[in-house]
From TrEMBL:
The lineage of its organism: Bacteria, Bacillati, Actinomycetota, Actinomycetes, Kitasatosporales. This is Lipase. The keyword RNA-binding does not apply. Signal peptide: none annotated. It comes from the Bacteria.
Length: 479
């Protein structure tokens, strides 16, 4: 999960073999370096290990102050730094579109007086794909992402105001018609780490779309750093305001609520995609719309193959992927990118593990760990070990050598460039993404995730997942 990124605190990484931690922490990420933001925010002052983050100094005693406008910090050329996403490697041009979803029957878990609503983006093989490249983040979301309360600073420790996040462009064309040739395409759901927005793994998502998948990224409203809705309304994360939380039971409750609401969000997305497919792309629920018109780009609804659905997630999103597969049989396969599947305190069964880890899965599942002493594979993660022992479906565990928790996100490709422009301290970059060469980390992550879904959703096996590979010596196979 990502709370240290915003809820590293949401990384639920407390070992059950030890006594209950004095200060539980959230699910998602494990980092041997300092904890930032929510990770520090939601941990008890005396806490030990949280969802993949090693406790550092005492947590903040008060909520993170409201973010005032952050003045731009001039670089050598008098301009803020900019970042560039790596190009997709598949044969198809990519299109993207966004959609607002609402669940009239469900109060928002963080603001019960409001109806639960989400923003999702769909990424897909496009026909021709003319037009300008879509931005990675909308202007308002980009502006917030770089403030002290945004994930750029809160989760990744980047100095506020030094990066122009609105300048980053994807390789996808906004609202391009979908490529109908080739017939229906498998659908992949993507869930980001705790506190990260749905845009914070665009590099991986675009690559999967260029290889022939329809990828749906989900913003978990009021968890994600920021969510911009049609009309410019911005919903900010509640986590910075929980920075002073000290009660272990309260922290545990927050994390359990986060995972439960995420799974409900995923099920809502699947329900709406099913309705869209049946209605040819017209949104039938009042108030749900894309750009105000409620219609998907031409041909997109017709290529959604909802009999072949997979899910990939980072940190808390990886936990979400496992739990969603456990709870909803419509999802056939999943990948967990360095997310623990454990809560700080035991539940009524006496276990700290989520039910996905406790029960295991019948579906194929891939665990991808990072090179930290406490998160390098199932032997180092109690929830992964339990999952490994109880899962009946095909499963494997690999670890990216020299990596850290952010290596499976856009941080791997974007932060080194920002560091070269003076917008990211070298120590911060190493803490976030480790020492693995960025281009190798990106290539390995893309190859393993694509190989997994090709094998289990398309029946195409390149044998990369048969064992250690000379193609990617950076990726260690965990026996």
């Amino acid at each position: 999960m990502h709370a240290s990124s915003t809820i590293a605190a949401a990384r639920i990484a407390v070992r059950t073999t030890a006594p209950p931690p004095a200060a539980p922490q959230p699910p998602g990420r494990r980092t041997t370096g300092r904890r930032r933001g929510l990770s520090a925010a939601l941990t008890l002052a005396a806490a030990a290990t949280v969802l993949g983050t090693v406790a550092g100094p005492a947590a903040a005693a008060a909520p993170v102050p409201a973010a005032a406008p952050v003045p731009a910090v001039a670089g050598a050329a008098g301009e803020r730094a900019t970042a560039v996403l790596p190009a997709p490697t598949g044969p198809f041009p990519v299109g993207t579109t966004s959609l607002r979803l609402a669940d009239p029957g469900r109060p928002d878990p963080w603001h019960p007086e409001r109806t639960r609503e989400l923003m999702i983006s769909l990424w897909y093989p496009a026909a021709g794909a003319p037009g300008p490249r879509a931005p990675q983040m909308t202007p308002s979301a980009a502006a917030h992402f770089g403030t002290p309360r945004g994930a750029g600073s809160f989760n990744y420790g980047l100095p506020p105001g030094r990066t122009d996040w609105s300048a980053t462009r994807t390789h996808a064309r906004q609202d391009a018609p979908a490529l109908r040739a080739g017939g229906p395409r498998p659908v992949l759901l993507h869930s980001a780490g705790l506190g990260d927005p749905r845009t914070w793994n665009t590099g991986l998502v675009e690559d999967l779309a260029s290889r022939g998948y329809v990828v749906v990224t989900v913003d978990h409203t009021y968890e994600a750093s920021e969510v911009e809705f049609p009309g410019g309304r911005l919903a900010e994360s509640v986590f910075p305001d929980l920075a002073g939380l000290q009660d272990p039971a309260a922290i545990d409750a927050v994390l359990r609520k986060a995972v439960a609401s995420r799974v409900d969000d995923v099920r809502l997305v699947l329900d709406r995609l099913t309705a869209l497919r049946a209605q040819g792309g017209e949104v039938q629920v009042r108030g749900e719309a894309r750009g105000g018109d409620g219609v998907l780009p031409a041909g997109l609804a017709g290529v959604l193959d909802l009999d072949r659905v997979g899910m990939v997630g980072h940190s808390a999103g990886g936990f979400t992927a496992a739990q969603a597969i456990h709870d909803d049989p419509r999802i056939k396969a999943g990948v967990n990118l360095d997310g623990t599947m454990e809560f700080p305190l035991p539940d009524s069964t006496g276990s700290t593990f989520g039910s996905a880890a406790r029960d295991g899965l019948d579906a194929p599942f891939l665990l991808m760990g990072t090179d930290n002493p406490d998160s390098g594979g199932h032997q180092q993660q109690p929830s992964w070990e339990a999952f490994w022992q109880h899962t009946r479906g095909w499963h494997a565990d690999v670890t990216l050598a020299g990596s850290r928790h952010g290596s499976y996100t856009d941080a791997e490709s974007l932060l080194p460039r920002l560091a070269r422009q003076g917008a990211a301290p070298a120590a911060t970059v190493t803490d976030d993404i480790g020492t693995v060469r960025p281009e190798r980390a990106v290539a390995a992550t893309r190859a393993y995730v694509a190989s997994f879904f090709d094998r289990w959703l398309r029946g195409r096996d390149d044998h990369l997942l048969d064992g250690p590979s000379a193609r990617f010596p950076e990726m260690r196979w965990v026996p």
